[in-house]
Amino acid sequence: MARITASVYTSHVPAIGAALDLGKAGEPYWQQVFRGYDFSKQWLKAHKPDVVFLVYNDHATAFSLEMIPTFAIGCAAQFPVADEGWGPRPVPMVIGHPELAAHIAQSVIQDDFDLTIVNKMDVDHGLTVPMSLMCGQPAVPHFAWPFPVIPFAVNVVQYPVPSGRRCFMLGQAIRRAIESYDEPLKVQIWGTGGMSHQLQGPRAGLINREFDNNFLDQLIADPARLAQMPHIDYVREAGSEGIELVMWLIARGAMADVAGGAKPKVVHRFYHVPASNTAVGHLILENV
C-alpha cells in the first residue's frame, strides 16, 4: 500500500521565485533566506518520494472570482506553469499522477468531503516556488522535476474560506485515501503559504514573529488544538494573508500520530524575516 513518509511546510513568497529566476539568490538580502533550505534540498535527495501531494492556493491564475472552488484536486497528467503577468517562470512543467489523484478524489469524496476535480490547470508561484526551494533551480529545458506532483488548491483568497478544523480533518481523509491505494508508493504531503503577512490596507507589511513561532510550536506538538483556532485570530495576529496557514493543517492532519501513530520526527525547522513583505517559515516532519 502507499504511505505518507513525511510532511513539508514552507512559505511560497512570489519574490523568492523572482530572486531565483533573476539570479539574485547570492545577494546578501536573499542569502539568509535560501540558506534555510540548504539542508532541505539534501534531505529531499536522500528521501526522494514517488509522489508529492502539494497543498497550495491559486493566486487568480487558474481560478478567478467567476469560479472559486474551496478544495480542488489536479487530476491531469501535466500542469503548465502559469503566466502571472510577466511570463511563466522558467521552470519545468509539473508532471501529475492521474491514477493516484483519481483514487484520492474518489476516496475523499466518499469520505464526505466535496472536492472539485480539475483536469486542466496552470499552476502558479504557490506551487512552483516551494518546488524550487526544495528541489533547486532547474535549467530549462534540460531539467525535469524529480517526482510527479498532485496539486491541491485551497481557496484562502476570497471569503468564506475553510476553517482550520475542516482542513485538519481533510488531511486525515487524504491520509486514509493514500493508505488505501494499492501500490507501494512513498508519498510526501506539502503544506504551503504564510506565514504572517498583509499586503494591503493600514496594516500592510505586518509581520508577527511571536505568533509565527508559536504556530510552529503548536503545529508540531498539538495540531488538534491548533486546528480549533478561529479565522479572526489568523487575521488579527497574522494579517489578512496569514489565513494561508490553514493549508499547513491539511498536511499536518495527514501525519501518522493524528491517527494514533508515533509522534513525527522534527527533521528541520527554519524561520526568517523578511522575504519581501512576508515572514518565511519552513518545517520538515518525518513519520517514524
Overview of the structural elements:
The chain has 288 residues and is an alpha/beta fold. The protein has one domain: Protocatechuate 4,5-dioxygenase, Chain B, CATH 3.40.830.10. The protein has 10 helices and 10 strands. The protein has an 8-stranded mixed β-sheet, sandwiched between helices. A hairpin with a 2-residue loop joins strand 9 and strand 10. Helix 1 crosses helix 5 and helix 6 runs parallel beside helix 10. The radius of gyration is 17 Å and the shape is globular. The model has no long low-confidence stretch (mean pLDDT 96).
Give the strand order of the largest sheet, numbering strands 1, 2, ... along the chain.
6-3-7-2-8-1-10-9
Q: What is the helix tally?
A: 10
Query: Which sheet architecture does the biggest sheet show?
Result: 8 strands, mixed
Residues in β-strands, percent: 15-25%
CATH superfamily: LigB-like
The end-to-end distance, rounded to whole angstroms, is: 17 Å
Mean pLDDT: 96
| Cα Rg | 17 Å
CATH topology: Protocatechuate 4,5-dioxygenase, Chain B
The proportion of residues forming helix, as a percent range, comes to 25-40%
